[in-house]
Amino acid sequence: xxxxxxxxxxxxxxxxxxxxxxxxxxxxxxxxxxxxxxxxxxxxxxxxxxxxxxxxxxxxxxxxxxxxxxxxxxxxxxxxxxxxxxxxxxxxxxxxxxxxxxxxxxxxxxxxxxxxxxxxxxxxxxxxxxxxxxxxxxxxxxxxxxxxxxxxxxxxxxxxxxxxxxxxxxxxxxxxxxxxxxxxxxxxxxxxxxxxxxxxxxxxxxxxxxxxxxxxxxxxxxxxxxxxxxxxxxxxxxxxxxxxxxxxxxxxxxxxxxxxxxxxxxxxxxxxxxxxxxxxxxxxxxxxxxxxxxxxxxxxxxxxxxxxxxxxxxxxxxxxxxxxxxxxxxxxxxxxxxxxxxxxxxxxxxxxxxxxxxxxxxxxxxxxxxxxxxxxxx
Length: 378
Description:
Blueprint: H1 7-12, H2 14-17, H3 23-32, E1 34-38, H4 44-54, E2 58-62, H5 87-98, E3 103-107, H6 116-120, E4 125-128, H7 133-145, E5 150-156, E6 159-165, H8 174-177, H9 190-193, H10 198-216, E7 225-230, E8 235-240, E9 279-280, H11 282-290, E10 295-299, H12 303-308, E11 315-316, H13 319-322, E12 334-338, H14 343-354, E13 360-363, H15 366-377
Helix pairs in contact: 4-5, 4-10
């Protein structure tokens, strides 16, 4: 079937047509592309706006939620008059106003293991704009079983991250990065921890860029690379993601062979029992360091806190990044976890215990206790 662009479309996309990397051939690719957006919230809002404007011809949205007043601070697809209305229907209306030359399918349901295959099969690519671990794992598994590329994004407070998963093409998958979900309560949701509205705007736009690159087959994708952005210090950092041969989904001996849903609750960790976790005093830590005892010291504070004061030789891994950087930690060496006063590092220890690490200590009193010790020695 020959795909043609109308005179109005040629004018609309004229700035694309001037780009040798896009041109008429590329614009036709965009017109025939089919992208499914999982979720219709903060990440999907900016991504969908740009994908629709760019001329991606078939956009699908799957989300059974309605617009709430608290969404409007970051979910820029919606207006105050949309509060109480179905998200996917509002999204469809807004995007068709931006570009009437595209087709939009509104799936007014939540993604499940039962409906997932039927819906996902007809799309070329999945853009994950979900806000919970259950849906992320399900979306990842669907992408793997159905041989679909997955553009992943997530946000937390002032930070966000983005990558492309293509496990069906020997790349890593989401489970290679996060083999298991964090224990209940360690990572609160945006409704509990908050998120600066522009953060999902930036990450969602990056997801849209990765989507267009994949459709057009141009540039270098984020496959195998996790791009992280910290808004407070305005820095991007990149981490390599390698395919995990022991991955339960895409590894050499997979244990996940059928589609299933993982029920993971997103609640705060204030009720976690922190009294029984192993600790180390700053005096004991200092002695170990002076004796060159093989102990890895991990500081889970934010970069700006670390710059103010830190222990020489410590490695900075902010708490929000810990779950994506466990590959940097040794399993056969003692690990001491440090924060300002011991709270965040205690939560980090609980998660690392769940991830299979055993030789763990929480530094009592954190950097404040360390500074007090050093001042008393001088």
